[in-house]
Write a structure and sequence with these properties.
The complex is a heterodimer of chains A (176) and B (262). Chain A has 176 residues and is mostly helical. Chain A folds into two domains: 5-87; 96-161, Winged helix-like DNA-binding domain superfamily/Winged helix DNA-binding domain (Arc Repressor Mutant, subunit A). Helix content of chain A is 66%, strand content 0%. The longest helix of chain A has 22 residues, at 18-39. Chain A starts with a helix and ends in a 15-residue tail after the last helix. With 262 residues, chain B is an all-alpha fold. Chain B folds into two domains: 4-109; 130-257, Serine Threonine Protein Phosphatase 5, Tetratricopeptide repeat (Alpha Horseshoe), CATH 1.25.40.10. Chain B contains twelve helices and no strands. Classes of the chains: A mainly alpha (176), B mainly alpha (262). Chain B: Pfam families: TPR_19 (PF14559). Chain B: The chain crosses the membrane at residues 93-112. Chain B: Keywords: Membrane, Transmembrane, Transmembrane helix.
Chain lengths: 176, 262
């Protein structure tokens, strides 16, 4: 890795995901061979597994669960992948029984419409102002973007208030 | 998370505050109210927690979507590379097939059109055993200078000159048979087979003449030179059958080589 490890963690924590993206681009093929050789995993499943592992790794960093980057990051991530394979976990489904508040919110977030998801991601993760959100989403102006964001947040909050969310795999998201 | 009903009541207000949509006066009033109103304080805390969680969720989802997008792009690139390699292999194979086809056609054309290697032509000169001519001692240059000069020219391969010199030799200096024999011999060597045959035949038809046997051999070779192969063969068979002929071995060699077939 070209970047110093400490710097990688800092960048990830402030939302710069390029390290993860580059890792996936550079190691997808190698990981696919590894998964095929050691676990007879088809290519598409191997890709999905690596993406799930990288997401999990990112969550650990963002949560503060991971405070020190492993010396051999690739070995660490492959080990996480191995654990998932051994446990028979599906990369797509979050285990809700063990899910925390954020994981529950993550599932509920999936029930929002695509536009709502985008608006909230732009505003709460990328930090775009309403004017830029309007530009990205094709809204008439910043006020429309603000009202849209407000509506989406309210919808999400109402979903939270309805109690336990259904399993992500059990029902298809409705376009809320 | 606090109850949904509590937060819903304040949601718009909390958003306006958090998103910087309030005027400075409104903001000040809101902050004062926040210190005094427990419900609002709880709602604010719940809102802060919700948006913090939402930031985490938004980051997670952004990364998931970016990874999926990258995955599709990598798949498309791999497919394109694979298709390109397939096309390259196809083109390469086609060219190899064309080159091989051209080579096969060229080889077939060469095999069918090549001429057999020319068989070296057998010439009479290859089998001809020349007469050494008269030696200087025999010619005696003091007595017969022209004859000596003629023989010398013959040995040097100047057959036309040798023939001219021979014709100038006085007849009293050389026997008639000898003159006929060497005249025929020089003509043969000079390439005049027809003329040579006349002289050599006359000598060969005189059995008592010592040069008759030798003349018969040169007559046979003169026939060969004129491409009269059957005549040459007949004459040389006579020579080969004559144990006293000095050219018996030479004649046998020609016949054994079986080169006189028309």
């Amino acid at each position: 890795m070209a970047q110093p490890l400490a710097e990688v963690l800092t960048r990830l924590r402030v939302g710069n995901q390029n390290f993860i993206i580059n890792f996936y681009q550079q190691h997808r093929e190698h990981f696919t061979h590894w998964a095929d050789l050691n676990h007879q995993l088809p290519a598409a499943e191997a890709h999905e597994l690596l993406r799930a592992v990288l997401l999990e790794f990112y969550d650990q960093v963002a949560d503060g669960r991971l405070t020190k980057l492993p010396e051999d990051l690739r070995a660490h991530l492959y080990s996480m992948a191995y654990e998932r394979i051994a446990a028979g976990k599906s990369a797509a489904v979050l285990p809700l029984a063990e899910a925390g508040r954020r994981q529950r919110l993550l599932v509920l977030f999936g029930y929002l419409g695509a536009d709502c998801q985008k608006v909230l991601m732009y505003f709460y993760f990328r930090g775009y102002n309403f004017e830029k959100v309007a530009g990205k989403m094709g809204y008439a102006n910043a006020t429309v973007a603000r009202l849209q964001k407000s509506s989406c947040l309210r919808t999400l909050y109402e979903l939270v208030g309805r109690g336990p969310a259904p399993q992500a795999s059990a029902a298809a998201p409705t376009d809320l | 998370m606090n109850s949904a009903a509590d937060l819903r009541l304040y949601l718009e207000l909390l958003e306006r505050f958090a998103d910087g949509q309030m005027t400075p006066d409104e903001q000040e009033q809101f902050e004062e109210r926040l210190e005094q109103d427990d419900e609002l304080r709880q709602a604010h805390a719940a809102y802060e927690q919700l948006t913090a969680d939402l930031r985490w969720v938004a980051g997670h989802e952004t990364l998931r979507l970016r990874l999926e997008l990258l995955d599709r792009r990598l798949d498309q690139r791999e497919t394109a590379i694979s298709r390109m390699q397939h096309q390259q292999r196809h083109t390469q194979n086609r060219w190899v097939a064309i080159v091989v086809g051209v080579l096969v056609l060229a080889m077939a054309f060469w095999i069918f059109t090549r001429r057999p290697a020319p068989v070296p032509e057998v010439t009479w000169e290859q089998y001809y055993q020349p007469d050494p001519g008269l030696s200087p001692a025999e010619t005696d240059a003091n007595l017969r200078p022209l004859l000596a000069e003629s023989m010398s020219q013959y040995r040097e391969g100047q057959y036309a000159a040798a023939l001219r010199s021979l014709r100038r030799v006085p007849t009293n200096n050389i026997g008639q048979d000898t003159l006929l024999y060497y005249t025929g011999l020089f003509l043969l060597r000079d390439g005049d087979a027809a003329g040579a045959r006349t002289f050599l035949r006359r000598v060969s038809q005189q059995p008592k003449v010592p040069l008759a046997r030798k003349a018969l051999y040169h007559l046979g070779m003169a026939h060969w030179q004129a491409n009269q192969l059957s005549e040459a063969s007949a004459v040389l068979k006579q020579v080969a059958a004559d144990a006293n002929n000095p050219y018996q071995q030479a004649a046998r060699k020609v016949l054994q080589a079986d080169v006189l077939k028309p």
